[in-house]
Design a protein that fits this description.
single chain, 12 helices, 3-stranded antiparallel β-sheet, disordered C terminus, elongated, Alpha-Beta Plaits, 15% strand, alpha+beta, 382 residues
């Protein structure tokens, strides 16, 4: 069989050599590409039939590496074809440069896929859907930022290596860098925001002041970290708006991270009531409401008299919850039920404004009018 293949190859080559040089070269190039694609199909078919059932991850790997594998086979086939094709020296140099650039692009493409596969394999151990996903968010954020930085570095190195494969471009690049001077300084100043954000991205990946799904408060807005890119961060605000902030902001300016160490938070509820309010009864009601709520995590529930004003006293209730959204909902629920409790059981404890008036014709012996207290009820705020 091997002898038959060699004989057929010799016959085809002999037939092509009798054609015009340009036609023969074109036929060889096209034939090499076709043979490379057929070889790729055979390789994929063989691997899937032998390993596909027992190793399902092999299918995913083959799908991801389809492009690089095809390009590698085409480059190999064209390298063999150029050696026997009837082409001139100029065309041979051109084909050589094209093959060199293709090989460099193949290496860069393979490196990008390797980084992607490696990051996905590493992150399989973590799930953002878990209730306590602090560790998962930490690793997902870190790997995501480092992957983008690695992708950017790989692309830059690939493009630079491809350009350096051409003599004319290499000489121009050397002369350009040698005579950069003020132009280089201007380019450096112009690229400062981009470079500062790239450096900030590396710092955030290492120190991690923010992570994906972190709850943050900055610029008077409250939201969650939805996306961290190479140069900016997208924050999903509570009303579904998106705030886009440069990465350098989180290195240079202060902000609040409500889920830095844990997602649990303590929420506060303020009530302004009359001095006659039974604080102990209200404290018992708060404990009852907290225990009945599925939002309370069972850790903190406190009612304190935090301030005393001219007409009201300030009560502060503290309750803990597993997350910031749960803490907000718990605060609203507790505030509503405590107000309803005061309205039903102790309406006289609601805020009142006392006024004193003088009835005509009624005087004390010292000339003063008798006081009269007139309650003026208002709603509780907090």
């Amino acid at each position: 069989m091997l002898e038959a293949i060699k004989y057929s190859y010799a016959e085809i080559l002999h037939t092509l050599l009798r054609l015009p040089d340009w036609l023969a070269a074109s036929a060889l190039v096209a034939g090499g590409i076709v043979v490379a694609l057929i070889a790729h199909a055979l390789i994929v078919h063989t691997i899937r039939n032998t390993l596909g059932v027992r190793h399902p991850k092999t299918r995913s790997l083959l799908t991801r590496s389809k492009g690089p594998l095809q390009l590698a086979l085409i480059v190999l086939a064209l390298k063999l074809v150029v050696g026997v094709a009837p082409i001139g020296d100029t065309a041979a140099v051109l084909f050589g440069n094209i093959l060199s650039v293709s090989f460099i692009a193949l290496l860069g493409w393979t490196a990008l896929i390797a980084v992607q596969i490696g990051s996905q394999i590493y992150l399989r151990r973590f799930s953002l859907d878990a209730e306590d996903n602090l560790l998962a968010r930490k690793h997902v954020t870190q790997i995501g930022i480092l992957k983008r930085a690695a992708d950017t570095l790989i692309v830059i190195m690939t493009v630079a290596a491809a350009m350096m494969s051409f003599e004319q471009v290499r000489q121009y690049g050397v002369s350009l860098f040698a005579s950069a001077g003020v132009a280089g300084l201007a380019i450096g100043l112009a690229a400062r925001p981009l470079l500062s954000n790239l450096i900030a991205g590396v710092q955030i990946a290492v120190a991690q002041p923010i992570r994906l799904d972190d709850v943050v408060f900055l610029e008077g807005e409250y939201g969650t970290i939805e996306e961290i890119t190479t140069t900016y961060v997208v924050i999903k605000l509570w009303d579904w708006r998106r705030m886009v902030v440069p990465l350098s902001y989180f290195i240079e300016k202060p902000f609040q991270n409500w889920t830095r160490e844990t997602s649990a938070l303590i929420g506060s509820v303020f009530l302004y009531v009359d001095y006659t309010v039974p604080v102990e009864k209200l404290r018992e009601k708060l404990m009852e409401v907290a225990r009945a709520s599925p939002l309370w995590d069972g850790r903190v529930v406190v009612l304190q008299v935090s301030d005393a004003k001219d007409h009201t006293i300030e009560l502060r209730a503290l309750l803990s919850a597993r997350s910031a959204p749960a803490a907000w909902d718990l605060r609203c629920d507790v505030r509503e039920k405590l107000i309803a409790y005061l309205q039903e059981e102790y309406p006289e404890a609601l805020p009142r404004t006392r006024q004193e008036f003088v009835a005509q014709g009624q005087r004390h012996h010292d000339g003063r009018s008798p006081p009269s207290l007139v309650p003026d009820h208002h709603s509780v705020s907090g």
